[in-house]
From TrEMBL:
NCBIfam families: gcp_kae1, T6A_TsaD_YgjD
GO function terms (MF aspect): iron ion binding; tRNA N(6)-L-threonylcarbamoyladenine synthase activity
Record's protein name: tRNA N6-adenosine threonylcarbamoyltransferase
Top-level EC class as recorded in UniProt: transferase
Underlying gene: tsaD
Keyword Transport annotated: no
Compartmental location: Cytoplasm
Length: 349
């Protein structure tokens, strides 16, 4: 029988709690701090921590209420212990420990990246979508903090094929938007601007490492080239060409993502691709990935609901359920600690 799990994620700028039963999400509540960070151009750790502390009880109480359950009805807790902002992760971990001790239920420690990889399989309370696991997959994670290609061999078994050597894809989009005078997050702004132009790749910015013989990414050279180019324009010219500039930058980032994913498909012979992370909400990226993967006779899955692209506790709950089925609880709750730079390769707690 599926057990009921209360999941918590406070890894970055969303305070999130969810109640899940197996793959099904009974409730999901999040408090987004985006508005607090916008004017700073990125997430400010001390502001994030305070906001998590102020909201954590509220999101948990609301998640329990929406699931129409009492906290004592939960069989276990699942909490993100990394990667993320150390002082933000700490808030969720501390809360999970406190609840676990008071209701005497075990904790499952979850790697946030595992959550994104599993996110296409999260189901609503009616059990949709029904798509079953059929390993192996290629996992593509494109978010504000991570850009990785992963060989997802079986439940909880990963091999990192490649990752970014500098900025994450979302981070690069955020920085380019900032150079054009916009606040955080920049990805949605660039997408909106790009959707207005016909010639989507007018400026043909460089695509660093696109042809390299590995699965790694690099976006910092592109960013520098974009910076120099925008600085070479008069303010009037920059404003007049803002949409093609945004679009051309987006195309350069996406071309690299699509090409490296194609390379991973060709190298592994695996044609089933899972995509997760905030950047994967972008319709242009979805179109380009779908096109390439269908040309390879492959299949691609994105998170079924928009909120699942972003940081959320529902995906953490699903990984919690998979681990619980295998008895992978933390043996000594006092031992769980935040791991800001946690990798998928690290042995989980
Ligand atoms: O997954 P996420 O919420 O946080 C991390 O785990 O990092 O991703 C946030 C990132 C930001 O960089 C944001 O600019 C980007 O996702 N993003 C988008 C879009 N919406 C959010 N990027 C491109 N197009 C979008 N529509
Ligand atoms: Zn994330």
């Amino acid at each position: 029988m599926n057990i009921t799990i209360l999941a918590i994620d406070t890894s970055c700028d969303e305070t999130s709690a969810a109640v899940v039963c197996g793959r099904r999400v009974l409730s999901h509540v999040e408090y987004s701090q985006i508005a607090m960070h916008t004017k700073w151009g990125g997430v400010v750790p001390s502001i994030a921590r305070r906001a998590h502390e102020e909201r954590i009880d509220w999101v948990i109480e609301k998640a329990m209420k929406n699931a129409q359950l009492l906290i004592t009805n939960c069989d276990a807790m699942a909490v993100t212990y990394g990667p993320g902002l150390a002082i933000a992760l700490e808030v969720g971990i501390k809360k999970a420990k406190k609840i676990s001790q008071s209701i005497k239920k075990p904790i499952i420690a979850v790697n946030h990246i595992e959550g994104h990889l599993y996110s296409p399989f999260v189901q609503n309370s009616k059990g949709n979508p029904k798509t079953d696991f059929k390993f192996p997959y290629i996992g593509l994670l494109v978010s504000g903090g991570h850009t990785e290609l992963v060989l997802f061999k079986d439940h909880l078994m990963y091999e990192i094929l490649g990752e970014t050597r500098d900025d994450a894809a979302g981070e690069a989009l955020d920085k380019a938007a900032r150079m054009l005078g916009f606040g955080y997050p920049g990805g949605p702004v660039l997408e909106r601007l790009a959707s207005q132009v016909e010639n989507v790749d007018q400026y043909k910015f460089p695509r660093p490492m696109i042809g390299s013989h590995n699965f790694d990414f690099s976006f910092s050279g592109l960013k520098t080239s974009f910076l120099y180019f925008t600085q070479s324009l008069s303010e009037e010219d920059r404003i007049a060409h803002i949409a093609p500039l945004a679009s051309s930058f987006q195309e350069a980032v996406f071309a690299t993502i699509v090409r490296k994913t194609l390379k991973a498909i060709a190298h592994t012979g695996i044609h089933r691709v899972l995509v997760g992370g905030g950047v994967a909400v972008n319709q242009r990226l979805r179109y380009l990935l779908r096109k390439m993967i269908h040309e390879q006779d492959g299949q691609v899955w994105f998170p079924p609901y928009k909120y699942l692209n972003f940081d959320n506790a529902a995906m953490i709950g699903l990984v919690g359920a998979i681990k619980a089925e295998r008895g992978l609880y933390v043996s000594d709750v006092s031992e769980i600690d935040r791991v800001a730079r946690l990798s998928l390769n690290d042995v989980t707690v």
